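User: Teach me something about this protein's shape.
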Amino acid sequence: MSPAILLSFLIGYFLILIVIAFATSKKSSDNSTFFIANRNSKWYLVAFGMIGTALSGVTFISVPGEVGAPSGNQFQYFQFVLGNAIGFIIIATVLLPLYYRMKLTSIYSYIEQRLGYYSYKTAASIFLISRTIGSAFRLYLVVIVLQRFIFDSYGVPFWATVLISLGLIWSYTFKGGLKTIIITDTLQTFFLVLSVFLTLYFICSSLDLDIPKAFETVKNSGYSKIFFYEDFLTSNFHFSKQLLGGIFVTIAMTGLDQDLMQKNLSMKTIKEAQKNMFTFTGVFVVLNIFFLSVGALLYIYATKNGIAIPLDHITGKPRTDFLFPEIALNHLSVIPAIVFMLGLTAATFATTDSALTALTTSFCVDFLHMDKREDSNSKEAVKKRHTVHIGFSIVLFLVIIIFNAVNDESVVKGIFKVASYTYGPLLGLYSFGLFVKKGLHDKLVPLVCILSPAVCYLLNAYSAELLGGYVFSVELILVNGLITFIGLLLISKKTDLQTKF
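Assistant: First, the predicted structure itself:
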């Protein structure tokens, strides 16, 4: 596949996004538009656009790649997806009503009103750190593909590719913010979904299979095992670990995350927000089945054509993340290659543009308190928001450069490993706020939220020795939240609570 063709496609793609950005922000580009889209979003647009935000390039590349990994993953990821679905339902029925009742712009304002100033700042800081790392991981995934298949041909260094990518994202998000994101993410999700089905079609055609035969082939292959009940102590794939991990990672990374909740809070009513979440959940589960099926077909195709898993340039080890782009860009025709790049770009940038907007919103609201100022939409306030937006773009750039230097494992594993440590304290904070009718010695909360991940790290490192051979998987986030919760109980105190909590 010619790098020039792919580069031309990318340029055209981003020109479309920039045109949409200027069209949506033409009438208004103030802070109310940027933060919550004036609370006038359509639920069906948000529901559809959230699919692209939630899936990202990680799902697009890493999930199919993991299907045939040497560790024998197969379809075990679907156990985690089922947990995700339960988590989304809990968010829609428990957290969204709370957020709407309190009319929040930043969801961490709840912590301030319920637990205090230091708890609030701790929760907002955890989000900023967690989302920055997670978004950097996701963008890193697409950048290494762009680097490998396009920019290496022109001698462009990796750091410049990262800078170009972030510059493009900044160019269409800095004015309209959430109002623009809702429209661009809808478009990008359409491209993502289209690319999934077209990719299936092209791979099936290359294998001389129609769609029913393709699914029968996947079912009868050695890649289609979904439920793992063996070796509860030592296996990362055990059903209970994956299901629990899926539930609590979703509650933390979605329900307690300003990014996806910001879109839900942009709708007029709680009923519309809930309708959005339920619709999104159904589509999310179905699409992941297709992604896993793509993974199985990729390995079947690779075996038939003698294609090995590509090696990482840095570590020299096989990198399953590279199998999908390797086949799509080097072994199929021009149209499948363009379809693949369209899906990958749409998935990853839909996630990153949303995250950059959420990071800017959280910092402006939680640390600069723009929502409490009478002049929150003044030129000075808007200019300050632009500065914050640029600042987070620079932070993402630096994190990606660092990650490129040290990462040697699948990105999908890296993201959820980090999430288990960073989002766990948020689970503890919100659980305490919702279920314990006590206050806290607020100044001690940051200490608890630092100690909890540290204890969790040690517990994970020595779990085999301490727990009779038990090995943690993504359910570690639940343990982290529980340790935080216990720590908060230890520093709790009696207090009078208002009924709205």
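Now, about its shape. The first strand starts at residue 439 and ends at 440. The beta strands are 439-440, 492-493. If you'd like, I can walk through any region in more detail.
User: That's plenty for now, thanks!
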